[in-house]
Amino acid sequence: MEHVKALGIKFIFTAIVVYSIFGIFYNASLGRLFWISLLVTGVSYVIGDLYILPRSGNILASIADLGLAFLSLWVLANIIIEMSIPTVMASIMASVVIAFCESLFHAYMQEKVINTREETRHFNQLQTEFAEETNEDTINKDRDKSKKDT
């Protein structure tokens, strides 16, 4: 359930950025922008949030998401929108905004989604506590020794 919630949040901010930038500059249809948003969200979630983020942390995952968002937006915009105007600048602007949102989203992922799975993984591991054995004779000797010293 947490993955569905996280995907929904990620899709919302990705769609807002894609609809804003590509809708304004390229006057693309809503259906085409929906598919671009959906594909970018899916690819970025699997690669950036589930694979890179747990292994390398927020900063490297945000940098990877910047590059991944740029490449995927640029390729998908050229394929789906089919405009004669180059889409490089719009892809750069959109990927920078998405990378900023991703750095905030990674905090949510680490708090709610990734830690939940780690807690269930470590649930069955038990630890043993070791202590020095004591008996009544050694306790009495230590008490008598401390009384003599004072």
Topology:
Elements: H1 2-26, H2 30-56, H3 58-81, H4 88-121, H5 136-149
Can you tell me about this structure?
There is one protein chain. This protein is mainly α. The protein has one domain (2-149). It is built from five helices and no strands. The chain has helices spanning 2-26, 30-56, 58-81, 88-121, 136-149. Helix 2 (30-56) packs antiparallel against helix 3 (58-81). The chain is rod-shaped. The protein starts with a helix and ends with a helix.
Instruction: State the end-to-end distance.
Output: 65 Å
Alpha plus pi helix count: 5
Low-confidence stretches: 116-123
Mean pLDDT: 84
Biggest pleated sheet:
none
The secondary-structure element order is: HHHHH
Helix content: over 70%
Number of domains: 1
Helix and strand content put the structural class at: mainly alpha
Tell me the fraction of residues in β-strands, as a range: under 5%
| Integer-rounded radius of gyration | 27 Å
- Give the total of beta strands: 0
What is the overall silhouette? rod-shaped
List keywords for this structure.
single chain, 150 residues, mainly alpha, 5 helices
Overview in brief:
The protein has 150 residues and is mainly α.
